[in-house]
Amino acid sequence: FCFSIDKNASQLFHEQLFALEKCLPNVFISKTVHEFDSAGHNQNEAHLDCLRSVRNRKWEYAMLLQSLDVMIKTHYQMTEILKIYGGANDIQTQLCPDDRCIDSLETNLGKLRLCPKNLKGEEMDKCKASSIKWGKGSMQVILSRAAVDYIFDQIDVFPLIKEMNDMGYGVDEQLYQSLHVTPEIGLPGGFHYKCRGNRDNQYISR
């Protein structure tokens, strides 16, 4: 478990969570403090801080939650469910409405630095000339280990996060969804944007 604490939380709350980290070997507290709001600003950064903190631990899937979310399945139940997933991510993905994926957002994968580092020659040129395929969904997602490693090792998501942070609301609901359905990015465990349809895909994260 990894927690990122709101900058506006009380000093007592900070102290209590850091005390929890000292007591339990499987609890981590992000050392970077962010200021959160109901529009989703800095949620993606906080999750990435936590994922970076636990990369050297042994795990196969990471569940990203927020605020008052709690797990209603046991660890054993989740393990059995995710075995069936077989490396697929669990991400609600639907078409992105115009008020979320606005025209002013940068879409070019080359400019967004989202072309995987392992691409060479014509494949890299093709990726740099391609556009991101927008997706939208709940920010609660389950990412495979391969997807998390890929996000840190092959692409740079921060230019895209910066673009989204300039929006007014729901800025945390397009990142993983868009990575998930853009074939040129090649996120492990993702699927093609043609599969997202006009309605929600089925998912269990929330």
TrEMBL record:
Keywords: Glycoprotein, Glycosyltransferase, Membrane, Transferase. It is a single-pass type II membrane protein. Pfam families: Branch. The keyword Cell membrane does not apply. It is found in: Membrane. The keyword Repeat does not apply. GO terms for cellular component: membrane. GO terms for molecular function: glycosyltransferase activity. PANTHER family: CORE-2_I-BRANCHING ENZYME, PROTEIN CBG11221. This is Uncharacterized protein.
